[in-house]
Amino acid sequence: MQHLDLQVIERALQWLDNDQPIWLCTVLATFGSSPREPGSMMVARSDGQHVGSLSGGCVEEDFLARLRAGDFHQPLSQIRYGNDEVSGPKVTLPCGGVLDVLIERLTPTEEHRAHLQTLREAMRGQQSLIRSVLLDNGESTFVEGSALGPRVERDEQAVRIRVGPTLRLIIAGISPVSAACAEFAQALGFDVIVCDPRDDEVATFNVPGVNVEAVLPSLYIEQHAHAATAVVALTHDPRIDDLAMMEAVRTEAFYIGVMGSRKTSANRAERLRRSGGLNDADIERLHMPIGLAIGSKTPAEIALAVMADIIRVHRGRPRHAL
């Protein structure tokens, strides 16, 4: 899940608490090129205010115009954008793709509030759920589910949407690369946390929207890393980087990486075996040198290589397939 989707649910709850009906939109499927993936969400009010997105803007513009005109008053709707061969809005996506969208009209009832609160807690925490929406009446329920598998599945009776913790990036240590990496990660929809025990470094770090913790990264990783977490160490200080790696391999983090040359990485691997008690399987989980080999030199280029590699792993793409 992207951090943007968590913002969608939080705003949806805020509007329901203000006794306003909302329209929760979820991308069900994409065909061809499409700006956002299945499971992406947007919430809107009848006056057109909205949070989140479904596409690059063309779909939202049509949907919000129809919403202000009084459409979508039934509890559940499905709509397809980008295909002139089917009935529906004649909107052509710039990328040439096709987009199926589920639209749920939710009223300010305790049942709907409780449902969205469960969804919010799943995104905030470490539990993965399957959200099932019946297509005949819009009734929605949750069952436990694995974090693995397609985000959306559907048949003639129901849509099943996989929800879980938002993507999280824990950056161990502050450096110029850390700042650039935090900015890239935010743009990619990650919830970003930077940890550093050095008060002087914390005082000078300023990336709006990033949570900064004045704590040893290993302590934070121990309590907050889950299966949707990437952990990167970017200081060149083994007192920070090594401890972060030692703790990260004890978690379910899907990506663990540390900055350094091949020689530095080889020395670190030996040090982690000898002093940290890591075995070969632990060392194999560490991406070091970190990032894709794109010839990066500047902090921004290194951060780009790091985030590209994290996305590659998250999408399940092997290096040789690039």
How would you describe this protein?
The model has no long low-confidence stretch (mean pLDDT 89). A hairpin with a 5-residue loop joins strand 6 and strand 7 (140-144). Helix 1 (3-17) runs antiparallel to helix 3 (110-124), helix 4 (176-187) packs across helix 10 (299-314) and helix 6 runs parallel beside helix 7 (238-248). The longest helix has 16 residues, at 299-314. The chain is α/β, with parallel strands linked by helices. The strands form three sheets. It has a six-stranded parallel β-sheet, with helices on both faces. A five-stranded antiparallel β-sheet has the order 3-2-1-5-4. A four-stranded antiparallel β-sheet has the order 7-6-9-8. The two termini are 24 Å apart. The protein is built from ten helices and 15 strands. It has two domains: 3-163, no CATH class; 168-321, Rossmann fold, CATH 3.40.50.720. The chain is 35% helix and 24% strand. The chain has helices at 3-17, 58-68, 110-124, 176-187, 199-204, 217-224, 238-248, 262-274, 280-285, 299-314, and strands at 22-31, 41-44, 50-52, 76-81, 98-106, 129-134, 140-144, 152-154, 158-163, 168-172, 191-195, 211-213, 229-233, 255-258, 286-287. It is elongated and about 65 Å long.
